[in-house]
Specification:
The complex is a heterodimer of chains A (about 475) and B (about 110).
Chain A lengths: L1 H23 L5 H22 L1 E2 L2 E2 L3 H21 L5 H31 L7 H4 L2 H28 L11 H21 L6 H19 L7 H22 L3 H24 L4 H7 L4 H6 L14 H9 L3 E6 L1 H6 L2 H13 L3 E5 L10 H8 L7 E2 L1 H7 L5 E5 L8 H4 L18 E6 L19 E5 L2 H14 L1
Parallel strand pairs in A: 3-4, 3-6, 4-5, 6-7, 7-8
Antiparallel strand pairs in A: 1-2
Helix pairs in contact in A: 1-2, 1-10, 4-6, 4-8, 4-9, 6-8, 6-9, 7-8, 9-10, 13-19, 15-19
Chain B lengths: L1 H9 L1 H17 L8 H11 L4 H10 L5 H30 L14
Classes of the chains: A alpha/beta (about 475), B mainly alpha (about 110).
């Protein structure tokens, strides 16, 4: 009876995951979708704790289980609540790594269990005792989980600025060799003597961790969202391995669902940047090879600066102003100041809208989330195609800390690493005012010709401070 | 070879689920607008936290005297919970920002 209730719990869990994911892909229902999936997860977890039995035996070690859930729950809730909006991407990466670690640990415990049970046997091979499929799910969970864990930690470090991009000559070959070595030791473990099989197993896990690090290390920070999404689907597959291991349907459905959806999402994200996944993984955006090729610095000419009061005048007498937000806005937490400027200009009869590039900021949708936080009305946000139609009739474009998404080199310079990426055609507008902290290049590490065009004026400074001063200036006009 | 075939035969239900879920996963998020890429990734991230169930089973089955299994299992439960709880809370916070979307005015003053 109790076991059939558990089956029902798992069924409910699986269905809520599917429906939740479906609702998450529609703006109107997204939040409820998330809550629905969370509820399903809760049912599956509680069901497992109290109803699970194997060979008629219930689970034990309740203090350990509840202790773990309590600690994890408290840390998870606090860190997720405290994290700043700008730091959300790295938080997602961190949690993803935790899931990977969990899958790897499960595999390690299961392997240890096999090892302890069979080690007493006099000189025999591991494959005499363990079915191939069973071993495969254990080792696959261990490898994929470890890669996902190590990779996510590196991605987290990169996004939070703790780890710099690093690549060396021939790294792709080294990576490939490490990967082959992982597979080789995994196969060797299965062929090895049952009394010492744990040693090659832990070597396999260690190598998988190294591979995870090497895999993410050379990829530029701007591509981290794609990498996180890919690692996310890896963790899904690792979780599904656990589902195979325990013949557990909800783990299997949840894991594979995320594995498939995550892979598609990764591809969609790449498409938004008009790049292929292979290009992201091997091309090393902004990596040494690309920068080296374009190493000869072109003489860009000079750029011109604009004062705050001039900016104030230009903007308040314009008919239409388009604001292009970028990562600089997120870093400076300038979204509220930005909204204030928008309201002020509107009260003077200026039409203000926002042009959102799909990959502005560090993650797709980053800007929408930030501006929504500042209560910017949703119908003021324009997607790229829409915005590109409006630029020719726009008087002033104000770029707030965006760079690569407005770089005309993406269209004109085939040697540029971002060549082919769709951009916002800001140069079609009458005036372009660029707010940046300095002339430093953007995340892709390339110069931006836009800044040197005659229509463009630079307004240096922290986005929030500049906007606040600008608001003051406009009020004083 | 035989063992692999036998394993497939033993697990055919599971293999069917895998194949069907791949299609469901792709179908379900096929038309997501790019605005929702990040929350969707975060939500999917929370869902694969279902691996916690495996951790609970490992923990619950562990021999109370096998400290390696206990400690590894305990760690697995902690990090698994982090993934689930943190994942859902972060996703909710992201999506909170979308509320009032489509409406002209927004009453919250956050």
């Amino acid at each position: 009876m109790e076991v059939s209730i558990l089956t029902l719990c798992y069924l409910v869990g699986s269905v809520t995951f599917i429906i939740g994911l479906k609702m998450l892909s529609n703006p109107a229902s997204a939040r409820n979708g998330n809550l629905l999936a969370a509820a399903g997860m809760g049912i599956a977890i509680i069901g497992t704790i109290f109803l699970y039995e194997e060979d008629g035996k219930k689970l034990g070690n309740y203090p350990w289980i509840f202790g773990g859930i309590l600690i994890g729950g408290i840390i998870g809730t606090l860190s997720a609540k405290k994290v700043k909006m700008t730091a959300m991407p790295e938080m997602v990466s961190m949690f993803n790594g935790m899931g990977g670690a969990c899958a790897a640990l499960i595999s390690a415990v299961e392997f240890d269990h096999l090892f302890q049970t069979h080690r007493g046997a006099e000189s025999a091979w591991l494959f005499d005792f363990v079915a191939g499929g069973h071993y495969l799910t254990i080792i696959a969970g261990a490898i994929i989980g470890s890669v996902s864990f190590a990779g996510s930690m590196i991605a987290w470090g990169k996004l939070s600025g703790k780890i710099k991009d690093m690549s060396f000559r021939g790294q792709h070959i080294v990576n490939l060799l490490v990967l082959l070595l992982v597979l080789a030791t995994a196969a060797f473990t299965y062929q090895s003597n049952v009394q010492s099989a744990n040693i090659p197993f832990y070597i396999t896990v260690g190598l998988a961790l190294v591979y995870g690090i090497l895999f993410v290390m050379p990829i530029g920070g701007a591509d981290m969202p794609v990498v996180i999404s890919l690692l996310n689907s890896f963790t899904g597959v690792a979780a599904a391995c656990g589902g195979f291991l325990y013949n557990n349907k909800v783990m299997l459905t949840g894991g594979i669902l995320v594995g498939a959806a995550g892979t598609l999402l990764t591809i969609l994200m790449c498409k938004a940047m008009n790049r292929s996944l292979k290009n992201v993984l091997i091309g090393s955006f902004g990596g040494s090879s690309a920068a080296g090729a374009a190493g000869v610095k072109k003489d860009q000419g000079s750029y011109k600066e604009i004062t705050l009061s001039d900016t104030a005048v230009v903007m308040s007498y314009a008919n239409k102003v388009l604001i292009v937000p970028g990562y600089g806005l997120a870093v400076a937490q300038a979204q509220h100041a930005c909204h204030e400027l928008e309201k002020l200009l509107e009260s003077k009869g200026v039409e203000v809208k926002y042009a959102i590039h799909p990959v502005a900021g560090r993650m797709p949708g980053h800007m929408n989330v930030l501006l929504a936080e500042a209560d910017v009305s949703y119908d003021k946000l324009m997607e790229m195609e829409q915005a590109n139609d409006e630029f020719p009739t726009t008087d002033v474009v104000l770029i707030l800390g965006a760079n690569d998404v407005v770089n005309p080199a993406a269209k004109t310079d085939p040697s540029s690493p971002i060549y082919g990426m769709p951009i916002l055609d800001v140069e079609l507008a009458k005036n372009v005012i660029v707010n940046k902290r300095s002339m430093k290049p953007g995340y892709a590490g390339i110069e931006n010709d836009l800044f040197f065009q005659p229509k463009t004026s630079m307004l240096f400074g922290d986005a929030k401070k500049v906007l606040q001063d600008l608001i003051g200036e406009i009020k004083n006009l | 070879m035989e063992s692999i075939l036998g394993w497939i035969a033993d697990n055919q239900q599971m293999i069917y689920i895998v194949i069907l879920m791949i299609f469901v996963g792709i179908e379900v998020i096929g038309h997501v607008p790019s605005v929702l890429h990040t929350p969707l990734m975060s939500g999917a991230n929370a869902i694969h936290g279902v691996v916690i169930i495996g951790a609970i089973i490992v923990m619950g089955k562990a021999d109370p005297h096998n400290y390696v299994a206990l400690i590894l299992g305990f760690l697995a439960v902690v990090v698994g919970t982090l993934n689930v709880v943190g994942g859902f809370v972060v996703t909710d916070r992201m999506l909170e920002m979308f509320k009032g979307k489509g409406k002209k005015q927004n009453t919250s003053s956050k």
